[in-house]
Amino acid sequence: xxxxxxxxxxxxxxxxxxxxxxxxxxxxxxxxxxxxxxxxxxxxxxxxxxxxxxxxxxxxxxxxxxxxxxxxxxxxxxxxxxxxxxxxxxxxxxxxxxxxxxxxxxxxxxxxxxxxxxxxxxxxxxxxxxxxxxxxxxxxxxxxxxxxxxxxxxxxxxxxxxxxxxxxxxxxxxxxxxxxxxxxxxxxxxxxxxxxxxxxxxxxxxxxxxxxxxxxxxxxxxxxxxxxxxxxxxxxxxxxxxxxxxxxxxxxxxxxxxxxxxxxxxxxxxxxxxxxxxxxxxxxxxxxxxxxxxxxxxxxxxxxxxxxxxxxxxxxxxxxxxxxxxxxxxxxx
Length: 333
Ligand code: UT7
Known about the structure:
By secondary structure, the protein is of the alpha/beta class. 31% of the residues lie in helices and 23% in strands. It folds into two domains: 7-176, Thiolase/Chalcone synthase (Peroxisomal Thiolase, Chain A, domain 1); 181-332, Peroxisomal Thiolase, Chain A, domain 1, CATH 3.40.47. The protein has helices at residues 23-27, 34-41, 55-70, 94-102, 119-132, 156-159, 225-246, 264-273, 285-288, 295-305, and strands spanning 7-15, 20-22, 45-47, 79-83, 110-113, 139-146, 164-173, 179-187, 195-197, 221-223, 256-259, 314-321, 325-332. Strand 12 (314-321) and strand 13 form a beta hairpin. The structure holds oxa(dethia)-CoA. Oxa(dethia)-CoA binds next to helix 2, helix 6 and helix 7.
């Protein structure tokens, strides 16, 4: 912690679709209730994107806000990474569509990255390393998801959990002591089938001579929820502890933890294991549900706007998701 960091988050922004879908709304569609969803997850409502609110649109809106917050123009951006598992199209990359919407120059590489719910931390680490190479100066790092497009709306075990949205940060040269202090990423591919969208890739192609509506569930998220729950707690705790140890910081030195927003019980369990008060964690999942790669940047932006992150604060970001991937990052403001 002796040296000042070289790169910092210069600005944050987020976008949530206008349409709010409450637990009560969902209980008219599937056999569920507000009481079940809220007590098991902490979720009250989620945002569901309309047809015009594509992943690229939401990503670009969040980015515009992050750029304004940072005081950086699209012309200054020389790298765009979109973390998403719900790109507008399998190809081209959503990042290219965002580049065009924002007017980022052609000299900027633009690509998508899929690490599911850990996607934003993977993208942040990637952008940070690319900036550290000295070849790029300002990066847009975005997490954006239209998960409503990959849900089986007749499956109550998944459709009540997820929502749509986007968050973005501008990464650039650090000013003073604020900056990214560290990042640590992990993956355990042995558990890949626990949480997946089985169809639409080369194993179960979206387009075949026999593709029929009967295949539709393969194009939706399936999850072994209870097993994922246990692994999520262990992985997020491990990722949090390791980055704190690497930087010689006790958990108590963290001013605000911004965790992946999947389930309040998961967050409470991590708080307990790290022996931190739950109010040290920023939580907004009651209003958005699980927005996968968008969850951390959306929460980060709201935490800053709510005054929960102040200059000089140290923030711990921690995520887990399909892959299974997980990771953590330490950021000073
Ligand atoms: O970002 C990574 C994404 N994944 C996650 O974060 C998921 C982690 N897992 C979880 O959050 C929890 O496991 C869930 C919220 C998904 C489920 O909670 P749970 O306490 O583990 O419930 P369960 O799966 O053990 O199901 C308990 C009961 C079952 O009924 P029976 O078999 O006991 O009769 C389910 O069929 O609840 C039933 N159930 C529901 N009931 C009402 C499952 N979904 C619903 C529902 N409404 N929406």
